[in-house]
Amino acid sequence: TLSEYRQGLLTYVEPNKPYVYIQLLPESELIIEKIDQLIDKIINENKRNSSYEIGDHVIAQFTQDDHYYRARIESYSTSTNFYTVYFIDYGNLDDNIKLNHLYSYSNELENIEPQTHGYLLNNIDVNLWTKKLYSIIENKLNDIIEFSIIDNNNSIIDIKLDNNNFEEEEKKILSANISAIDENFFYIHILPDDNLHVCEIEEYLQICDKQNKDNWLINDLCIVLNHDNKYYRGQILNIIDNKYNIRCIDYGNILTNIIHNHLFILLDDEILKQLPLAHKCQLYGIDDIYQKKAIDDIIQYIPITESITIHIENHDENNQCLFVTLIRENNDNINAQYLLNDNIEDENKQESDTNEKNEIILSNSSDIVNIDEQKTSQIENNNNNDQSDDITNVTENSSSLSMSNNNQTIDFGENDSLTTIKDETNDSISSN
């Protein structure tokens, strides 16, 4: 069964891509023992050639442990006189093999299949692999691991390590695409599963049986038809003058002014009960003002084709919104940019507040007068006998103090119609 876990010996881990080599257990154990016996026999008989061609199978001494293993010649350097070989039972290369460390193959060895199998790790992109997960897997080299094959071609696997620590790390660090934005949130598809499931759902909705419903209520789940005659899963946000605003739950965008006849239910409603494929996110540690600024300045311009890395730092009480760190393909950390700006503004605000404490505004005037300068002016005026006794009175009125107010009301309502889907995702998802 594809989903069942089985055991294997982890023999090699590619450093630059999520690809590993595994000997299947228990099948490989006896076969490897037989191979070692045949190798010992060849070495004892000193079977060598004077030279070898690229593609030849040989017995090669691995430079890191001085043991001999089955290998295939990959290249030869005339400048160093070293061969590069690939160890067919383990998956790794060695580019420092001298001619006198090579022995010839036998027909018996030729008849034994390579004992290592290469697998791509499921749902892990190169950035995620090199930054986080490679070191976790590499620490298990030459250990027995549990893994499950998830495709019919026997090429993609999930690995279970250390009481699911690997799976937990995988869930916390994800590869994703931006699917939509609104004023205060952005929505993501987790790669590659969400994109595949979106396509499957959309194909099904185009051909399945649908029917209209007499009455709809806010928060009802539905199937919505857009102006391009494509169907999507949706949720009713509000109803105004018999028109409906619908959030597409698999993208995050909002379709506005949808007419009643473009809303449907399914005879089989199981598909509507599946979880939304659009995951609502906010930047972790960023206040509301800079949250909106980040969306306006950067996030809305991230192409749908760009694979971003999402670090899940926390979530809200209802687990409806993820608080994340967003890292782009060029390694730009979006959170770090706005945390820096936020700190600079806080410092500027503190300095501004200190200065404002020493300033007042003249009554009925926009001129700002420094308190120290006022007192000096009044003393000089009182000492001047030739000056009129009419001295301008400065009124210190608390309502005239110049104060900085950076508070801003942010609407977190789900009825916001300003949600925008990424144009590159699907031009057909738009307001009707």
Secondary-structure map:
Blueprint: E1 5-13, E2 19-24, H1 27-44, E3 57-61, E4 68-77, E5 82-87, E6 93-97, E7 102-104, H2 107-110, E8 116-121, H3 126-138, E9 144-149, E10 156-160, H4 165-172, E11 173-181, E12 186-190, H5 193-207, E13 210-211, E14 221-225, E15 231-240, E16 243-248, E17 254-258, E18 263-266, H6 270-273, E19 279-283, H7 288-297, E20 308-315, E21 322-327, H8 334-356, E22 359-361, E23 368-370, H9 371-382, E24 420-421
Straight-line distance between termini: 46 Å
CATH level 1 name of the largest domain = Mainly Beta
Q: What's the number of helices?
A: 9
Helix percentage: 10-25%
pLDDT under 50 segments (min length 5)?
360-418, 423-432
The oligomeric status of these chains comes to single chain
Alpha-carbon Rg, integer? 34 Å
Number of strands: 24
What share of residues are in beta strands?
A: 25-35%
